[in-house]
């Protein structure tokens, strides 16, 4: 009873703090909200929407089941998850967080995963996409594409190591795990594809419409969290809480042999990755080695903003959030250690061999393809977002009209 009362008072206190801070800092709140909206409107929505819609179609048409049968002999021994986990892992790396959580929850709802298998899978399939790591962070903030290679290798290798460690999670739990034969059979995979497609009796138009509307609804939720945490992080800084908590983090960093000047940027990165990465690149420390270690940690930790998105997605299922949060800390440790170990062979040695830092203003005759891709996405993103929102609204309106017609 006491615990419940303390929780109620704490939640009310946080809500009251946010309300008072919003009233006290209206201009700064507006700027933070605008920054969050720009990020969602121009980059997050258009980059994730195609992956979400494609994933929904692949699940509906049985292609994911087909992939699951083929990759069962690989995924089961390595990560102790069904073969369909290979699809989630690949899509999670290609599209970025929170795609892994979205697809894991979807497969759990389809009963293609047990509860324990889903908790294992979601722990290592939420990764940052290469475009963000190389273009936004490395080229955009540090003007150094070679650093992006180091960060990407540390990030994805650390993710795989987390998956190997989490294979032992829930091993003592009794679960009805569907263990497939270790032999690869294309004929059996095609049979599963056909059976899965026949189970879904929806016509193609309904499947496509559901894919669009479900994806847009999820991305609207993600946008809300991005804006909320953008504002919340700014308010913590304005009222001085960030500096107080960063002081404790500075003690930890000093104990680990890292510059305490990175404490405040790292603290911001624990809430919102993009802001934290930008602040780390602008920090007073001149050691790129320590900056790479800290950025590797916050990229792996995902940030509380992404974690809140994942928690919201998992809340629709029986998948628990705890294993995912533990895996994020584990991933952060692995990625940081890998950055410390691989900094010389993957970065310093490559620079000595002739790789040069990329200037802020890239010459037109030698553009960086990753930065070009990011700029293209940012220029076309708003149009894609507006078109997709309009299409989803049209589909919902037509369905409501047809439904009312037959009532």
Automatic annotation (TrEMBL):
Give the species this sequence originates from: Aquibacillus halophilus
Where would you find the membrane-spanning parts of this chain? 44-67, 79-100, 121-142, 148-170, 286-304, 325-343, 380-402
UniProt xrefs under NCBIfam families: spore_ylbJ
Alphabetically sorted, this entry's keywords are:
Membrane, Transmembrane, Transmembrane helix
Q: Where is the signal peptide?
A: none
Q: Which InterPro entries match?
A: Gate_dom, Spore_IM_YlbJ
This protein is called Sporulation integral membrane protein YlbJ
**Which residues belong to any copy of the Nucleoside transporter/FeoB GTPase Gate domain?**
43-140, 219-315
């Amino acid at each position: 009873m006491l615990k419940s009362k303390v929780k109620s008072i704490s939640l009310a206190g946080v809500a009251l703090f946010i309300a008072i801070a919003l009233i006290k800092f209206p201009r700064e709140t507006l700027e933070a909200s605008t920054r969050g909206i720009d990020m969602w409107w121009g980059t997050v929505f258009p980059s994730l929407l195609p992956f979400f819609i494609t994933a929904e179609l692949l699940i509906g048409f049985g292609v994911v089941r087909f992939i699951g049968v083929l990759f069962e002999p690989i995924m089961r021994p390595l990560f102790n998850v069904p073969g369909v986990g290979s699809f989630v892992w690949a899509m999670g790396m290609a599209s970025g967080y929170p795609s892994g959580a979205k697809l894991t929850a979807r497969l759990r709802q389809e009963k293609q995963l047990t509860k324990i298998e889903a908790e294992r899978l979601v722990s290592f399939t939420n990764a940052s996409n290469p475009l963000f790591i190389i273009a936004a962070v490395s080229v955009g903030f540090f003007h150094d594409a070679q650093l992006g290679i180091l960060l990407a290798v540390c990030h994805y290798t650390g993710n795989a190591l987390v998956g190997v460690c989490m294979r032992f999670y829930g091993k003592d739990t009794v679960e009805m795990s569907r263990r497939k034969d270790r032999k690869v059979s294309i004929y059996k995979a095609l049979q599963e594809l056909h059976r899965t497609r026949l189970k879904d009796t929806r016509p193609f138009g309904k499947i496509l419409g559901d894919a669009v509307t479900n994806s847009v609804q999820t991305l609207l939720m993600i946008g809300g969290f991005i804006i909320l945490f953008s504002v919340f992080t700014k308010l913590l800084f304005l009222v001085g809480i960030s500096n107080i908590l960063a002081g404790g983090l500075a003690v930890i960093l000093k104990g680990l042999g890292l510059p305490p000047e990175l404490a405040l940027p790292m603290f911001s990165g624990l809430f919102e990755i993009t802001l934290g990465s930008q602040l780390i690149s602008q920090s007073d420390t001149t050691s790129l080695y320590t900056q790479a270690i800290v950025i590797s940690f916050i990229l792996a930790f995902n940030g509380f903003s992404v974690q809140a998105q994942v928690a919201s997605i998992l809340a629709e299922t029986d998948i628990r959030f705890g294993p995912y949060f533990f895996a994020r800390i584990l991933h952060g440790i692995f990625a940081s250690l890998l950055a410390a170990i691989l900094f010389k062979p993957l970065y310093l040695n490559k620079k000595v061999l002739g790789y040069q830092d990329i200037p802020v203003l890239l010459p037109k005759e030698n553009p960086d393809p990753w930065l070009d891709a990011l700029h293209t996405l940012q220029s076309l993103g708003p149009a894609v977002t507006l078109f997709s929102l309009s299409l989803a609204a049209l589909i919902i309106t037509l369905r409501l009209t047809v439904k009312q017609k037959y009532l």
